[in-house]
Amino acid sequence: MIAPSLLIKAGGDISESRLDFVRSRLKNLMSDEAPLDQNLIEVLVAKNSIRLRSQHLDERASMGISFHDGVANHRRLYGGGKSQLLAKAVGISQKRGLSIVDATAGLAADSFVLAGLGASVQMLERSPLLALMIEEALLVVKRSENVDPDLLEIINRMSVIQTEATVWLSQQGGKACEVIFLDPMFPDRTKKAAVT
Questions:
Q1: Residue 1 pLDDT grade (very low, low, confident, very high; cuts 50, 70, 90)
Q2: What single string gives the DSSP state of each residue in 55-79?
Q3: How far apart are CA 92 and CA 58, in angstroms?
Q4: How far is CA 165 from the centre of its chain?
């Protein structure tokens, strides 16, 4: 599978310096405009967000990361707390203030849940684009004027580093955290046979 190329575009009325900042962070992933490229992803840069969409879809079909609204915040408020399978898997109910490294941060949904349950979460993300999107989503909450204090407390327990997890973890000398969380995003199993 060929990795998609990125085309950075203004997703609203923003300054050229904002676009230049995003371009500098993603310079190795960018493409010249190639309308026939089947693997071209548009990066829509707005004042307080970065969203992605396939060049063949309209803007309403874009996706981004947000911690103050949508699915993430709904799960924080109504997700089941420490009885969630994720919380049980990492042992949150056994220890308060657990230190966790999410070695495959992705869209940071699991990290947000874990931080919401009291853990300090260091997110590691290999993709420069996803790492930048997470950084931006964290900053939006921190810069909001009327932010929910509980949400701000959660966000302050989260941080992201754009790195290859194996490299970063090997440099920590075994003192990175109490739990290393891996979610490799394998598809759901459809077979009923037991895993051996």
A1: very low
A2: TTS-GGG-B---SSSHHHHHHHHHS
A3: 41
A4: 14
